[in-house]
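Entry 14. Structure prediction run on the chain below.
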Amino acid sequence: MIREICKDEAFLSQSSVPASPGDEDVARDLLDTLIAHKETCVGLAANMIGVTKRIIAFDNDGKYMIMYNPLILKGKDPYLTNEGCLSLSGVRKAKRFRSIKVQYQNEQFQTRIKTFRDFPAQIIQHEIDHCNGILI
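Output returned:
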């Protein structure tokens, strides 16, 4: 189901709680909402659709991906960039890493560790910030 994008900064500033089996409907709604906004959006966190769970969905070089409980283990090669967000107006500066090692759970809640680079890494960092209540 396509959900409305939350723009309430007080709500978005809350840290999300861990996702668990049973949260698959939230992940499906998150993906449906991302696809509905694909012209202007490359990633969403669950709090952007009003659910404070650690779930993100993003475009991983042309293939959509869901992560439950993502955590950045390591970042390399920091840089400054400008980012926009469906939940916030305008473009803002953000510090990101060109390469990140992420621990997450896949759609079967199996723990995985994977390295992401460049634009997918930037998207993941932005969405994990959302899970942590950090607004750019």
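The mean pLDDT is 97.
Filed with the rest of this week's runs.
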